[in-house]
Design brief:
20% strand; 36% helix; binds S-adenosyl-L-homocysteine; binds iron/sulfur cluster; two-stranded parallel sheet; 342 residues; 14 strands; alpha/beta; ten-stranded mixed β-sheet
């Protein structure tokens, strides 16, 4: 049995043609599934009974279920979602004044082993299917009661999206499809720890915003914090960033987790400005979110401000990212923490 949510519209068209039906039926089915939230063919009133029966014999429409929701006192909501095989993932909804951002996961756990990240501590349990990536969006969107729908998507939850390249890109195509979830690619951002070959491939195959978790300005420190740097050191990574095709008027986001005594020196800030020179970018400073699996500490507020000031003085756009949802382990790098405890 095929899951409709694991198919691009082209694949569904082939299936429909194979059943002896017209191609446009695929667009109708997509509309039902992604715009109206249908989870059965019986709901699709503009399909003939005969077609519905044929479809039911070869495919189905998956959906995911929420196990638990936690609400932060800053409005952030974290959803624990159960997958068909019993694995669990987390998805985070972040309301801001003018947008509603959903942060979705692409893997159960993560193999990249970054020293500061709870998800990394889980190791890789498995890749998510395209349908599981999409179903996080469908589930949360359909459960929203407020008028404002999800405006922005970030692939910054559990996992390294580019290590699950095939399924992530398929999900991105459906997210962006005018018959699918209908998100403009300007509203979608994929974050990577720096898998250089996949970054190059991504840029050549799809238009999307890119965020890169940089977190250090020298190879020694980055090797220590992020083992992926031993494979793709800073100069390779930054060259790939320079070449990455950006959407009009968009810039690369560099994420920099600021850790006390590790990468928070004024010299780090100056070096950061130097190595990013020439790349259209903005820098998100994320003060380290402390957690029980790490001895790292968040720098004090003055050190954080001083770090930012160096960047601002050198004309970089740089924001200190408020740590949303840290009281419920929903902040950056804390996802999977509740799974680790259980
Ligand atoms: N694997 C991808 C997508 C996950 S995004 C990536 O690493 O980019 C997770 C983000 O949270 C990354 O920018 C990472 O640097 C950041 N992060 C991880 N652990 C953190 C922590 N303890 N405190 C603050 N940010 C953290
Ligand atoms: Fe994986 Fe990203 Fe966490 Fe590193 S920061 S372990 S790449 S999820």
């Amino acid at each position: 049995m095929f899951d409709v949510k694991d198919m691009t519209i082209d694949e569904l068209q082939d299936l429909v043609l194979g059943l002896g039906e017209d191609r446009y039926r695929a667009s109708q089915i997509f509309g039902w599934v992604y715009q109206k939230g249908a989870t059965s063919f019986d709901e699709m009133t503009n399909l003939s009974k005969k077609l519905k029966e044929k479809l039911k014999k070869v495919c189905y429409i998956s959906q995911l279920h929420q196990v638990k929701e936690e609400n932060s006192n800053d409005g952030t909501r974290k959803f624990l979602i159960k997958l068909e095989d019993g694995c669990q993932i987390e998805t985070v909804l972040i309301p801001e004044s003018n947008r509603l951002t959903l942060c979705i996961s692409t893997q159960v756990g993560c193999a990249m082993g970054c020293k500061f990240c709870i998800t990394g501590k889980l190791g890789l349990i498995r890749n998510l299917k395209a349908s599981e990536i999409l179903n996080q969006i469908c589930l949360i969107r359909d459960s929203l009661t407020e008028k404002q729908g999800i405006s922005n998507l970030v692939l910054m939850g559990m996992g390294e999206p580019l290590a699950n390249y095939k399924n992530t890109i398929k999900a991105l195509r459906i997210i962006n499809d005018p018959h699918g979830l209908q998100f403009s690619n300007r509203k979608v951002t994929i974050s990577t720890a720096g898998l250089v070959p996949e970054m190059e491939r991504l840029g050549s195959e799809i238009e999307v915003n890119l965020a890169v978790s940089l977190n250090a300005t020298e190879d020694d420190t980055r090797d220590y914090l992020m083992p992926v740097n031993r494979r793709y050191p800073l100069n390779m990574l930054l060259n790939a960033c320079r070449k990455f095709p950006l959407l009009p008027r968009k810039r690369i986001t560099f994420e920099y987790v600021l850790i006390k005594g590790i990468n928070d020196d004024i010299d780090d800030a100056k070096r950061l400005a130097k190595i990013l020179r020439g790349i259209p970018c903005k820098i998100n400073i994320i003060p380290f979110n402390e957690h029980h699996t790490s001895d790292f500490k968040r720098p004090d507020n003055e050190a954080i401000k001083n770090f930012q000031q160096v960047l601002l003085d050198l004309n970089y756009t740089s924001i200190i990212r408020a740590s949303r949802g840290s009281d419920i382990l929903a902040a950056c790098g804390q996802l999977g923490g509740s799974l680790l405890l259980h």
